[in-house]
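Ticket #4471: structure export looks truncated?
Reporter: QA, pipeline team
Priority: medium

Steps to reproduce: submit the single chain below to the structure queue and open the exported record.
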Amino acid sequence: MDKKRVQKILDSLDEVYGKFYVCYLNYSKPYELLIATMLSAQCTDARVNMVTEELFKKYTSLKAFAEVPIKELEIAIHSTGFYHNKAKNIKACANELIHLYGEEIPEDIESLIKLSGVGRKTANVVRGHIYHSPSVAVDTHVKRISLKLALVKSEDPVKIEFELMKILPEQHWLRYNTQIIAHGRTVCTARSPKCESCCLLTYCPWGLKSRLEILEEKA
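Actual output as written to the record:
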């Protein structure tokens, strides 16, 4: 991997999106971020924030989530999709945090991914935003755009995580995720990417090929 090319991509992201990382999920307590991230699987952050606005007002502690009847929780989170599994995992996870960790969220990824319903992406989001631990969270935007930029070769999220950890400077791990999310929502959208206005076009094999094909069609 060309380190200079990687750095130019990161510099461009910094210039457009800033050198800070943001969380697009609303929360006020660490466990709320964990639950919100679990709900965000196959669901938009905007929808999750709509649901959790009422959810976190109604259930104000891990104990409340551990004790809520499963059907009641399913109704509360229904619009996030996959609500049967999400409700089951949230209740189980709340119980595990209470009985195994004294209601604290563990920082190390190995402990986090042992919690019900918590995969590496969720674990890395929590580690990054709660503990500010260098982490690479691979969501659909990161996967799609990293592949377009030819920064990674695999389509498996776990393998992508480790590929990115090898080529990205550790200080950029956290903000790469949030920068790419912003880029994926506004410019490099899944259905109609705006390649002509993309700050990364010069470094994007997929985008350059796409633009060339359009020009050839017009010729």
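Status: closed, not a bug. The export was complete when the record was re-opened. Leaving a note from the reviewer for reference: The radius of gyration is 19 Å.
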